């Protein structure tokens, strides 16, 4: 009975203690190893972390037009690539303009861009309130505004007007802004960036890759080209040129290659390391396009077209700098190619329609798949700035002023061989306009600009019509059906989709 | 003397130790005055009653009859009174007098309503039960050769749907009680000897004495916070009071598993023929191509073993049950298996007349090997490819990889230890009160290990195929989960004349904490298992990028924890054995919700009327029992991740800056949380009728249930501009759903001469409907889910449709001619010979807006039928089970990024006008593979789930070898399935309720033939 009496008292005693003391505390469980959005960013260190995070989105696989380089594939420069059946129904439809609002990749691209916008908004919204070095604080905000402008520029080119989010808590229902409203924000953000970012040379070597004044001005030039505002395009392109911060790599392949990583031609570059996943620092962009088969460097998407191969002027070294052919040896590695991919594909009439080849620009020397994840994608090259300057000057009826910049690009391509790529001399505006477009194709081929160049210059229906492009429809991508569904009708589809 | 005193003390000490070591029964009780023997028989059948209990009245001394109904018991003196009892029979008391042989004939009770049923925090006589509870006893639990005891409920208990969607060794089936009530986890909870948990795969079927399925609000309300999806009470075995002779039992079973059904795929010739139709010239001579049956290559016959040895018994003050079990299942796919040892120790100890203490303890180490997903590869691989080159090396299989190489290089293990234990003390006082306090622990320690050696599969031209692992990789993970539960209840039980009151109040606390850690290494020194360890050379260092060795796990080190506090009350009042009222109230607080929404209350009320007890029923002799009952109540659900309410910061972001690049840390807002989350609440009404006719030869139970769930916790896609990222979702309380239907169980039990037989049928109808989604708090009114392998969703849960309803284009034939194509609205990609999609909205164009409801994955009727015969020691039983009304989306057929093999239905394809109206022209991808009802198949089936023939040797034979009983049996599981579904099995389920019924390639369930023996001694 002794035991019983003890128990009779002990149990209720413990119970009473517990019930009336620890209850509310017991139900308060703190997060483990996770900050909440209320507690970040609050310090100078947080501000740096938040700013760094905005750049990461550019290395995200889906930032690259949803995963695959569809902007080249939709152009006359490239076909789907890989073997004929690989991703036939997911990527294939971009090759012949049979994609639909539910097409694979569109929703991922759309969503990923907004992740970047959100990260930029975190900096823009919260960093100004942090007590820290004011100059550094302004730079962080300018970096974030640069990224936000860059992302909205992708949006507006791909879809036109989109919901415009400028803080971290957008309302539940948000309709599409107009194209002009989106452009207005882009210009505002980029102008702030251009006014407040340091020059490239003002950054420490280990900070290269951050947004610079030159990058912001170059991007403004590009934006104004798309807006057909050639006066401003000229102004900003010339600002970059006159800044003396940039130059051309002597060797063309270095413009995209490892030797030119964060080099003088690099105006905006997405850093990556040779790690076979995105979380660890690798970039899928080069892996998706890397040589398929032997050597096994990737999946082999985005195959240069026969048309692009044949369009290069005789002896242009940029052909070899753009196309990897079977039988080539690059950095000591023989290119054998992929077994299931036909070396040559012909149509029923016997015409060659595809030759197995790969995108030279993403090549990274090394000995395994992971090396390809270290490709640094160039989002703005100085050569592009020169060509933008040439284009703007020509459009502003200063063709003679345009020629030096155009020929500067050709001169580098020539690489000392004066037998090829003679200087352009024409000053007839329309001829020069076409020549600059051709030059852009050869200089910037397979880098993702061709489709938008064709669209902005109005050449798309003529050039891409035979591939399936429909004027009035394919200038813009369809808004992802899933977004329209979720919005319960707030979002309206683009015309003719 | 001194020595004897010491000796006596020593003995007592040893005895105490042994009792606590659960071997108390080994000690024989002290010599008694007299030994009484006798037999117990039944008045109605005149047969002996094995397992009847004999107790010496007023003591704990007792015995149990053997297989022949014989017993032996020692009594102190002539005045002793024996109490003989047996379930379903009226207990009898016999004064011994001078007799040494006491034979007893027990008279069957008028009703068998007095079966005792386990309910939350107690037991209740079935006649006093006001709720809906289904029960399964141990014989039925061991009928199926299964790892997880819950499989024995399949087709046995009305209202319960158990779907074994995969034959992966160690995989747990999906359990649904009365439909799918929510969009998050619809799994019931399990209460094993008082401990609440999510899975009972660790338990040995043979250790379970009963499982009770609590279905309606009244019976589940005691688990209010988590009872919304139903509660399965599991009671493990215990020695019987008075059973002083230790009973030993051995079960051994060996079975062979085979693929129950192969999928009809094309052979090499037919595939080449179709390929040539699609891409002319693909194969030059279709008669000379190889024909590889990939399914045959990956499947094998595999053994399954199950052994168990147990002992149970009692001493005067204690009862015990101990058992050891061993279960091993090899998979029918190489490199898969499951192995488990279970040790079970249950004891109760009557410390004094007022105090009882006890424990249950299960200790279960397990090893699982998981095969890579090769069934899908075997399904897709072209039959015209060979598995090996002439030199014996693996041949490349473009697109899918060579499944045999995947198997050969796979080493994926999951090893762990599950331990569940519970200690309790119960104090009775003032005659009517009992205070019980129990502390339980549920712990799972798990280690995963996955090693892939470096390997390369070459193409036939010697080039490297995509199936390559350049450096060996090793991932190691550990996880630990620990839940403790402290439950305290005070019960009051009193009978006052015609009034009987049973009341209970309780307070419980529960805490769960878990953590996990993982590492990924590569370039391991040697391939063999002795080197499956990670050292610094194998870990990726971002600043010293040597060898390009990569990477971290996504989650290097994660941890989570949550807790719950509950207050519970219940009153059960019975008047005159006729009128029963039950009221239950539970209040729960969960740490998963923010302070304002933390606590919620869950009341329920029930009433029952034992009509057969009324005088006016006395004349209706053929009705021996009749009860009507009704219940109403609210139940809750908090099955969301512990951190759902928080808006997290993603702190694992790496940005690369500088030269050739070096990592810089980044952090930013991640996915938004929802601080307004609150409890999901289910309101359930149940009206039931129980009847026994013709002296219980015919028994039946009927229920109507109506369950609405509101504020359903649901993961919703948010608009892209929230910046949560692709495929990310956020929890909301934003939906309502309804489940209603009828349940019935009818059993006929009788005998003809020496042939005993029983036939039982049960069925459940389910009407499932979404009442609301999105609304003010949510943003997504058509919950999209069911993503196919290519990322395309095929379910939409819309108001008015079932949860997870399939969504896609409707087809109505094939375009036979160009003229027909031109005449109908069609997509630009459509051509002659392609599927004709219906212009549902009639706008003259076919686009996303024409997608519509094309079927439900939820069956409208599930049923089971159990038949048993017993004749002169031979027993024969079988179990049939099935469902109708559900559809399956054949996703493995619908996703074709590459040219894959076809199901043989392609042989009926359209090849010209009039050749087919259902099967489009052959193609390797594209338009015809747009999600449509073309891929929807009927998921109805009837399965002969189990058939057993056993023979119990005559008692005199077995006694010769000192056995009480010997039973030998053979059985077959999943012997035959009648279905129109073309996949491995029509049982396609998923834990994801909005992605259910989608067959994207599964590890097929198996047919098992086994032989076993039960020994009792």
Topology:
The complex is a heterodimer of chains A (497) and B (1017).
Chain A: H1 2-20, H2 23-26, H3 44-59, H4 70-73, E1 78-81, H5 92-95, H6 106-126, H7 134-159, H8 179-196, H9 213-226, H10 230-242, E2 266-270, H11 284-289, E3 301-304, H12 306-311, H13 317-320, E4 323-325, E5 329-330, E6 333-334, E7 344-346, E8 352-355, E9 357-359, H14 369-372, E10 377-381, H15 382-395, H16 399-414, H17 429-444, H18 450-456, H19 460-464, H20 481-486
Antiparallel strand pairs in A: 1-3, 2-10, 4-9, 5-6, 7-8
Chain B: H1 2-20, E1 34-42, E2 53-56, E3 62-64, E4 70-75, E5 81-85, E6 92-95, E7 104-106, E8 116-119, E9 122-125, E10 133-137, H2 138-141, E11 160-163, E12 174-177, E13 189-192, E14 195-197, E15 208-214, H3 217-220, E16 231-236, E17 247-259, H4 268-278, H5 294-298, E18 302-314, E19 318-330, E20 337-352, E21 355-369, H6 375-380, H7 403-408, E22 411-429, E23 433-452, E24 455-458, E25 464-469, E26 473-496, E27 499-522, E28 557-575, E29 579-590, E30 599-610, E31 623-637, E32 649-657, E33 662-669, E34 680-693, E35 698-710, E36 713-717, E37 729-733, E38 735-752, E39 755-765, E40 767-773, E41 783-787, E42 793-797, E43 806-808, E44 811-814, H8 818-823, E45 835-837, E46 852-855, E47 861-871, E48 874-884, E49 887-889, H9 891-894, E50 936-938, E51 941-952, H10 955-960, E52 965-979, E53 1006-1016
Parallel strand pairs in B: 1-7, 13-16
Antiparallel strand pairs in B: 1-4, 2-3, 2-5, 5-6, 8-9, 10-15, 11-12, 13-14, 15-16, 17-18, 17-53, 18-19, 19-20, 20-21, 21-22, 22-23, 23-26, 24-25, 26-27, 27-28, 28-29, 29-30, 30-31, 31-34, 32-33, 34-35, 35-38, 36-37, 38-39, 38-40, 39-47, 41-42, 43-46, 44-45, 47-48, 48-51, 49-50, 51-52, 52-53
């Amino acid at each position: 009975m002794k035991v019983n009496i003890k128990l009779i008292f002990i149990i209720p005693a413990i119970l009473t203690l517990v019930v009336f003391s620890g209850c509310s505390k017991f139900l308060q469980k703190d997060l483990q190893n996770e900050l909440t959005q209320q507690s970040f960013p609050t310090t100078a260190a947080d501000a740096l972390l938040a700013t760094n995070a905005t750049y990461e989105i550019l290395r995200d696989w889906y930032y690259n037009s949803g995963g695959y380089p569809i902007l080249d594939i939709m152009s006359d420069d490239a076909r789907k690539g890989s073997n004929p059946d690989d991703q036939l129904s997911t990527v294939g439809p971009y090759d012949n303009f049979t994609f639909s609002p539910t097409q694979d990749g569109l929703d991922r691209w759309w969503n990923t861009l907004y992740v970047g916008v959100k990260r930029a908004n975190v900096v823009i919204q919260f960093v100004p309130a942090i007590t820290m070095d004011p100059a550094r604080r302004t730079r962080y905000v300018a970096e974030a505004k640069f990224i936000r402008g860059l992302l909205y520029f992708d949006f507006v080119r791909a879809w036109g007007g989109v919901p415009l989010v400028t803080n971290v808590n957008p309302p539940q229902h948000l309709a599409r802004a107009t194209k002009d409203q989106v452009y207005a924000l882009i210009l505002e953000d980029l102008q702030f960036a251009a006014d407040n970012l340091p020059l490239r040379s003002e950054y420490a070597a280990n900070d290269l890759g951050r947004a610079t004044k030159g990058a912001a001005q170059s991007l403004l030039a590009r934006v104004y080209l798309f807006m057909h505002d050639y006066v401003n395009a000229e102004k900003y392109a010339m600002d970059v040129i006159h800044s003396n911060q940039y130059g051309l790599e002597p060797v063309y392949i270095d413009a995209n290659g490892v030797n030119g990583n964060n080099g003088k031609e690099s105006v905006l570059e997405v850093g990556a390391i040779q790690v076979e996943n995105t979380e660890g620092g690798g970039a899928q962009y080069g892996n998706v396009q890397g040589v398929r088969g032997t050597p096994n460097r990737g999946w082999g998407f985005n195959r240069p077209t026969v048309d692009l191969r044949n369009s290069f002027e005789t002896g242009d070294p940029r052909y070899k700098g753009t196309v990897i052919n079977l039988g080539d040896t690059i950095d000591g590695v023989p290119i054998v190619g992929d077994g299931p991919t036909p070396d040559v594909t012909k149509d029923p009439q016997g015409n060659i329609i595809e030759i197995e080849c790969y995108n030279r620009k993403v090549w990274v020397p090394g000995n395994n798949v992971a090396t390809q994840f270290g490709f640094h994608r160039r989002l703005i090259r100085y050569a592009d700035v020169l060509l933008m300057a040439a284009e703007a000057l020509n459009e502003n009826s200063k063709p003679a002023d345009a020629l030096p910049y155009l020929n500067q690009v050709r001169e580098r391509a020539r690489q000392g061989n004066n037998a090829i790529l003679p200087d352009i001399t024409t000053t007839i505006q329309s001829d020069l306009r076409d020549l600059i477009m051709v030059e852009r194709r050869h200089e910037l081929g397979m880098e993702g600009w061709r489709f938008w160049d064709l669209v902005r210059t109005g050449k798309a229906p003529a050039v891409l019509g035979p591939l399936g492009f429909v004027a009035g429809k394919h200038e813009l991508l369809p808004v992802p059906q899933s977004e329209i569904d979720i919005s319960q009708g707030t979002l309206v589809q683009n015309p003719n989709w | 003397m001194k020595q004897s005193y010491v000796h006596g003390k020593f003995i007592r000490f040893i005895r105490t130790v042994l009792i606590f070591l659960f071997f108390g029964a080994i000690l024989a009780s002290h010599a008694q005055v007299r030994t009484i023997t006798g037999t117990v028989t039944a008045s109605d059948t005149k047969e002996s009653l094995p397992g009847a209990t004999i107790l010496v009245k007023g003591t704990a001394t007792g015995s149990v009859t053997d297989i022949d109904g014989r017993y032996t018991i020692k009594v102190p003196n002539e005045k002793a009174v024996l109490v003989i009892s047996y379930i379903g029979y009226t207990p009898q008391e016999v004064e011994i007098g001078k007799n040494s042989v006491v034979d007893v004939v027990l008279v069957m009770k008028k009703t068998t309503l007095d079966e005792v049923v386990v309910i939350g925090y107690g037991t209740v006589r079935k006649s006093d039960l006001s709720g809906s509870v289904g029960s399964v006893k141990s014989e039925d639990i061991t009928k199926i050769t299964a790892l997880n005891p819950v499989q024995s409920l399949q087709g046995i208990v009305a209202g319960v749907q158990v779907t074994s969607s995969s034959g992966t060794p160690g995989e747990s089936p999906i359990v649904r009680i009365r439909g799918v009530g929510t969009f998050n986890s619809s799994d019931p909870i399990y209460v094993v000897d008082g401990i609440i948990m999510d899975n009972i795969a660790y338990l040995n079927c043979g250790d379970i004495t009963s499982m009770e399925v609590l279905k309606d609000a009244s019976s589940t309300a005691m688990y209010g916070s988590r009872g919304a999806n139903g509660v399965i009470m599991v009671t493990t075995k215990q020695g019987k009071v008075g059973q002083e002779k230790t009973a030993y039992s051995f079960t051994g079973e060996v079975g062979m598993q085979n693929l129950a059904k192969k999928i009809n795929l094309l052979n090499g010739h037919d595939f080449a023929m179709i390929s040539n139709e699609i891409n002319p010239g693909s194969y030059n001579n279709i008669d000379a191509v190889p024909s590889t049956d990939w399914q045959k290559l990956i499947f094998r016959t595999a053994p399954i073993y199950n052994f168990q040895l147990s002992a149970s018994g009692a001493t005067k003050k204690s009862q015990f049950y101990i058992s050891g079990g061993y279960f091993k299942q090899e998979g029918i796919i190489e490199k898969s298996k499951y192995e488990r040892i279970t040790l079970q120790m249950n004891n109760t100890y009557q410390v004094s007349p007022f105090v009882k203490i006890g424990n249950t303890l299960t200790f279960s180490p397990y090893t699982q090997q998981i095969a890579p997903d090769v069934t899908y590869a075997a399904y897709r691989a072209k039959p015209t490819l060979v598995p090996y080159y002439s030199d014996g090396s693996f041949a490349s299989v473009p697109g899918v990889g060579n499944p045999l190489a995947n198997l050969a290089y796979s080493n994926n293990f999951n090893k762990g230890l599950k331990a569940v234990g519970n200690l309790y003390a119960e104090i009775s006082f003032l005659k009517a009160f009992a205070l019980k306090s129990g502390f339980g622990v549920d712990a799972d320690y798990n280690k995963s290990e996955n090693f892939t050696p470096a390997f390369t599969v070459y193409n036939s031209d010697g080039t490297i195929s995509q199936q390559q692992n350049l450096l060996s990789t090793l991932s190691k993970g550990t996880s630990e989960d620990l839940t403790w539960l402290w439950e305290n209840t005070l019960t009051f039980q009193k009978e006052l004349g015609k009034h009987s009151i049973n009341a209970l109040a309780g307070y419980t606390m529960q805490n769960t904490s878990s953590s996990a850690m993982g590492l990924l290494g590569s370039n391991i020194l040697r391939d063999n298992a002795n080197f499956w360890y990670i050292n610094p050379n194998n870990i990726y260092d971002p600043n010293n990028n040597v060898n390009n060795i990569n990477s971290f796990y996504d989650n290097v080190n994660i941890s989570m924890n949550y807790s719950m506090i509950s207050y519970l009350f219940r009153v059960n009042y019975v008047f005159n054995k006729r009128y029963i009222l039950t009221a239950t109230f539970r209040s729960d607080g969960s740490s998963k919700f923010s302070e304002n929404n933390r606590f919620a209350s869950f009341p329920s009320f029930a009433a029952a009327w034992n009509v057969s007890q009324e005088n006016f029923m006395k004349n209706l002799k053929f009705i021996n029992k009749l009860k009507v009952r009704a219940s109403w109540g609210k139940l809750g659900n908090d099955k969301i991740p512990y951190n759902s309410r928080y808006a997290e910061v993603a702190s694992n972001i790496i940005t690369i800056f500088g030269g050739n690049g070096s990592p810089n840390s980044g952090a930013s807002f991640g996915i938004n949380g929802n601080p307004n989350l609150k409890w999901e609440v289910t309101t359930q009404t149940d009206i039931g009728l129980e009847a026994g006719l013709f002296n219980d030869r015919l028994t039946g139970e009927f229920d109507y249930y109506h369950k609405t769930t509101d504020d359903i916790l649901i993961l919703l896609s948010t608009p892209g501009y929230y910046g949560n990222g692709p495929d990310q979702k956020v929890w909301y309380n934003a939906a309502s759903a309804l489940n209603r239907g009828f349940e019935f169980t009818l059993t006929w039990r009788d005998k003809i001469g020496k042939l005993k037989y029983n036939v039982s049928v049960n069925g459940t109808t389910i009407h499932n409907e979404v009442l609301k989604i999105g609304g003010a708090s949510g943003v997504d009114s058509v919950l999209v889910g069911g993503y196919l392998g290519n990322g395309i969703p095929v379910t939409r849960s819309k108001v008015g449709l079932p949860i997870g309803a399939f969504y896609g284009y409707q087809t109505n034939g094939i375009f036979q001619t160009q003229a027909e194509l031109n005449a109908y609205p069609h997509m630009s990609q459509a051509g002659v010979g392609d599927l004709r999609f219906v212009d549902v909205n009639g706008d003259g164009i076919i686009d996303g807006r024409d997608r519509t409801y094309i079927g439900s994955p939820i069956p409208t009727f599930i049923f089971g039928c159990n038949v048993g015969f017993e004749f002169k020691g031979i027993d024969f039983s079988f179990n049939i089970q099935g469902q109708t009304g559900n559809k399956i989306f054949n996703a493995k057929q619908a996703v074709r990024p590459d040219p894959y093999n076809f199901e043989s239905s392609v042989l009926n394809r359209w090849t010209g006008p009039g050749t087919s109206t259902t099967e489009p022209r052959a193609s390797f991808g594209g338009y015809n593979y747009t999600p449509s009802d073309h891929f929807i198949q009927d998921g109805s089936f009837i399965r002969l789930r189990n058939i057993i023939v056993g023979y119990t040797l005559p008692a005199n034979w077995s006694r010769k070898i000192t056995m009480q009983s010997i039973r030998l049996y053979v059985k077959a599981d999943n012997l035959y399935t009648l279905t129109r579904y073309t996949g491995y099995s029509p049982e396609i389920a998923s834990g994801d309720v909005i992605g259910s019924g989608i067959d994207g390639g599964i590890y097929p369930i198996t047919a098992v033939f086994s032989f076993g023996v039960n020994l009792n001694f």
